[in-house]
Every structure is written in structure tokens, then in C-alpha cells.
């Protein structure tokens, strides 16, 4: 099976949990240390071998696509002033990587956003990266290694891969939660997850359950590698939790016919879509960069 080269980044949401910061600045462009949050997510995708990135955007968030474009006027001015290195640092996107933008129209949920990318992705298999979640980029290549592992696992057995990490009881209601298959339901299987990625078959997912109904503490982190067949299931998915077309429901439908596995995450994830965790993430990123003299 060919390696996955396409990735979808849904960036159409209003970011209500990040108001007032996100009122006129897209939440994906809010800084984590000295770069916008989405910068790290795009770097992660590229480091894992992605060549075509599809942003599912919104009319009021065109600043995101501009961030990845060359600003010719700024580039000219910097070079005219002899600031070549600074100009070069702004044009960091590799030449063999393309970024396309497609609009979601009415925002009907994460599943709907991913389906909006279908006209560009077509019959290619693809990754999805939720830019609210930033994987720690300061621990070697670990952040990209997670996605690279998932892409390899998918190439090996054709099972779509969903990245999961163990969360605290009080956070279970914020996430899609995995129900492992019988043979992997022993929690001891998960104890080594910080040491190495591992892939387990999964029986299903429950979107944002109450703690009492949660089948495990394994939460969907926001990194997925999908067979293109997911589009067919998304097209037939109706609104559920929160009145939205949930990606989780389409994944559940994909499991029986095409196989889905969870990949346990290495390293740490940071939620940049929630004010409190965003502020903690900012401090961590800034401290790391200051320590590195950036
Ligand atoms: C989405 C997904 C959820 C996942 C989460 C990760 O929820 O629906 O399954 O656990 O992202 O951040 P959202 O946070 O967009 O409501």
C-alpha cells in the first residue's frame, strides 16, 4: 500500500473557548512561544512525510492561508534591507509541499469538515490533524514519529489508525473515548505507551461520554490516518452528539468493514483550543525556546 501523502487540517471553527483572543485572530494563529500554533502542526505533518495539506477553512479565517503563502512585498522589503536570513526563515515551507484551501460552508461538525475535503483528496488515503492539539515538538522527532508510525501501520495492514492517550477521569467527557477489542482490553497493555508507539485493534468509540459510560480512559488525541472509504461513511452520517456530524460516528461505521486500530501516543500533547491549557502550553513553549536561545 502506498504511503499516505495527504493531510486534512480543519480550521473553520470559531474557537469560542478561546474568546476574546480568537475574536479577530483565528485561534490557530495564536502564539505558542514564538510561532503560531498551526505552524508546529504543519511541521509535524511534513516531518511525517505529508506532501499535500488541505485546510478546511472559513471566509473570516483567510489569515491562516496567508500565513503559509509567500508575502512578496514583505520578502522584497526584507531582502532590500539585507535581511536575507529573516526573509528565508519566513519561506520555510518545502517546495514539494502544497497547501490547498477549501471552504466548509455551514459548519456542521468535525465529520462534516473532513468530508468537505473530499473534492481535493478523492480516492487518496489521508491523515487528519486537529490543530487545536499540538504534540510536544521539543523532544526530538517524537511528535512527527507518532504520525509516521501511524502511516507505516496503515501501510502494513490497511487499518485506519487513531492516536490515543490516557487521560484523567475528570477529562474523559472532553474526548472521543476508545473501546478496545476483547483481546486488548487489559489496561496493562497500555502501560508502556510512553516508551513506544503500539497499535491495537479497537471495537468502537464513544464521543464525549460521562465517566460512568466511558469504555476506557484512552482518549482520541486529534491525529488520524484514514482509508479514503471514510468519506462514504461520513456522507451517510447524521448529526448526533451536540447536534453535529461527528467524525467518531463515521469511524465506528468504518471499523466492521475496513478495520480500525488505535495507536498509543509517545510524548505529550498540548491543547491550544482551551484557554487554560493554552496558557499553560504557551508558557511551556516559551520556556523551551528561551532556554534554546531562540
Ligand atoms: C474532537 C473529536 C474528539 C477528540 C478531540 C481531540 O472533539 O470529536 O473525538 O477527542 O477532538 O481534541 P472537539 O475537541 O473538536 O470537540
Descriptive labels:
binds 1-O-phosphono-alpha-D-glucopyranose, two-stranded antiparallel ribbon, about 20% strand, nine-stranded mixed sheet, Spore Coat Polysaccharide Biosynthesis Protein SpsA, Chain A, 13 strands
Account of the 3D structure:
This protein is of the alpha/beta class. It has a single domain, classed as Alpha-Beta Complex (Spore Coat Polysaccharide Biosynthesis Protein SpsA, Chain A), CATH 3.90.550. It is built from 10 helices and 13 strands. The protein has helices spanning 37-47, 62-67, 72-80, 84-90, 110-116, 118-121, 142-157, 230-235, 247-258, 275-291, and strands at 6-10, 31-32, 35-36, 52-57, 98-103, 126-129, 133-135, 160-166, 176-180, 199-207, 218-226, 260-264, 269-271. The strands form 3 sheets. A 9-stranded mixed β-sheet has the order 5-4-1-6-11-8-12-10-9, sandwiched between helices. The protein has a two-stranded antiparallel ribbon with strand order 2-3. A hairpin with a 2-residue loop joins strand 2 (31-32) and strand 3. Helix 3 runs antiparallel to helix 4 (84-90) and helix 5 packs across helix 9 (247-258). Residues 110, 130, 132-133, 175-176, 207, 219-220, 222, 247-248 line the site of 1-O-phosphono-alpha-D-glucopyranose.
Topology record:
Elements: E1 6-10, E2 31-32, E3 35-36, H1 37-47, E4 52-57, H2 62-67, H3 72-80, H4 84-90, E5 98-103, H5 110-116, H6 118-121, E6 126-129, E7 133-135, H7 142-157, E8 160-166, E9 176-180, E10 199-207, E11 218-226, H8 230-235, H9 247-258, E12 260-264, E13 269-271, H10 275-291
Parallel strand pairs: 1-4, 1-6, 4-5, 8-12
Antiparallel strand pairs: 2-3, 6-11, 7-13, 8-11, 9-10, 10-12
Helix pairs in contact: 1-7, 3-4, 5-9
The structure holds 1-O-phosphono-alpha-D-glucopyranose (G1P).
Amino acid at each position: 500500500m502506498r504511503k499516505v501523502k495527504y493531510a486534512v487540517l480543519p480550521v473553520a471553527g470559531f474557537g469560542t473557548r478561546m474568546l476574546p483572543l480568537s475574536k479577530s485572530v483565528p485561534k490557530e494563529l495564536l502564539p505558542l512561544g514564538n510561532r503560531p500554533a498551526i505552524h508546529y502542526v504543519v511541521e509535524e505533518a511534513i516531518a511525517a512525510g505529508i506532501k499535500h495539506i488541505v485546510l478546511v477553512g472559513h471566509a473570516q479565517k483567510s489569515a491562516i492561508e496567508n500565513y503559509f503563502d509567500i508575502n512578496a512585498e514583505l520578502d522584497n522589503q526584507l531582502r532590500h534591507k539585507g535581511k536575507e536570513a529573516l526573509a528565508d526563515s519566513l519561506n520555510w515551507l518545502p517546495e514539494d509541499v502544497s497547501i490547498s484551501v477549501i471552504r466548509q460552508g455551514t459548519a456542521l461538525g468535525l465529520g462534516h469538515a473532513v468530508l468537505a475535503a473530499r473534492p481535493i483528496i478523492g480516492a487518496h488515503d489521508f491523515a487528519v490533524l486537529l490543530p487545536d492539539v499540538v504534540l510536544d515538538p521539543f523532544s526530538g522527532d517524537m511528535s512527527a514519529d507518532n504520525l509516521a508510525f501511524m502511516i507505516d501501520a496503515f501501510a502494513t495492514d490497511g487499518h485506519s489508525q487513531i492516536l490515543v492517550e490516557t487521560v484523567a477521569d475528570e477529562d474523559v467527557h472532553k474526548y472521543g473515548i476508545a473501546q478496545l477489542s476483547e483481546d486488548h482490553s487489559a489496561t496493562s497493555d497500555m502501560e508502556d505507551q510512553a516508551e513506544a508507539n503500539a497499535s491495537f485493534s479497537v471495537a468502537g468509540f464513544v464521543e464525549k461520554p460521562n465517566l460512568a459510560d466511558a469504555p476506557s480512559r484512552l482518549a482520541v488525541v486529534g491525529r488520524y490516518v484514514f482509508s479514503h472509504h471514510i468519506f462514504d461513511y461520513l456522507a451517510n452520517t447524521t448529526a448526533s452528539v451536540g447536534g453535529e456530524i461527528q467524525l467518531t460516528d463515521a469511524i465506528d461505521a468504518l471499523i466492521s468493514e475496513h478495520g480500525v486500530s488505535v495507536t498509543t501516543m509517545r510524548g505529550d500533547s498540548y491543547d491550544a483550543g482551551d484557554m487554560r491549557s493554552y496558557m499553560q502550553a504557551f508558557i511551556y513553549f516559551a520556556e523551551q525556546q528561551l532556554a534554546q536561545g531562540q
